[in-house]
């Protein structure tokens, strides 16, 4: 946002702006349904990635802190570089999970075509996480190596 601000200051400013926008939306414009619907949709898209990261964290025995920060320092390569910087099995699993999540969302503003897959229960978040997690685990198992630890 502002290059001269420190990370803590930027976080505080961003949080203050987000809270102000939230209160405006809820109390001034009465946008509770819109905020809730967007939160459900975002959860359906973000949760599969969280599942993939959790699987990586649980199945990896050690991390290289220098290589974890390589991208932040503008360095290419290292333990986590994968295929031109992309972990293709993880991206594929996330894409499948997120697509299912968006198609299964059931809110007051948007109902996906798979919304009734569980008899009216919104399974967009849990289903997207399970699908992405299972697909990522299968890709790790079939490769007989840990994509997280590619040298």
Automatic annotation (TrEMBL):
Question: Which cellular compartments is it found in?
Answer: Membrane
Q: Look up the signal peptide feature and give its range.
A: none
Q: What is the lineage of its organism?
A: Bacteria, Bacillati, Actinomycetota, Actinomycetes, Mycobacteriales
Q: Principal place where this protein is found?
A: membrane
UniProt entry keywords in alphabetical sequence? Membrane, Transmembrane, Transmembrane helix, Transport
Query: What's the domain of life for this entry?
Result: Bacteria
**Membrane topology per record:** Multi-pass membrane protein
Record's family?
A: Belongs to the purine-cytosine permease (2.A.39) family.
Record InterPro entries:
Pur-cyt_permease (IPR001248), Pur-cyt_permease_Fcy2/21/22 (IPR026030)
Its transmembrane ranges are: 12-29, 35-58, 86-105, 117-138
User: What protein name does the entry list?
Assistant: Cytosine permease
